[in-house]
Write a structure and sequence with these properties.
4-stranded antiparallel β-sheet, 13% helix, mainly beta, 91 residues, 1 helix
Amino acid sequence: MNENELLIKNRLREATVILERANLIICDESWKCDSSRPPFSSFQLVIQGEGTVQVDQTVLHPHAGQLYLLRSEERRVGNGPLSAGSVSSLC
């Protein structure tokens, strides 16, 4: 484990998260998310499949088993066939 991974792991252990809502989103090949800037941060867990999410200028290609953080106020655009459990929280 490198120094950055260790730092992140330790910080996550110390984090306090307030769960506001949890959703399961099932998407087929035609799924597309238009540009949005939500006022809340969210953790996304991809249960199965894969897709593409653009956050500002960064393109992510999440696939099954990945958990990632989408921070509030970032512009998001997404598409692809995936089944994602979305856990949103005000951090």
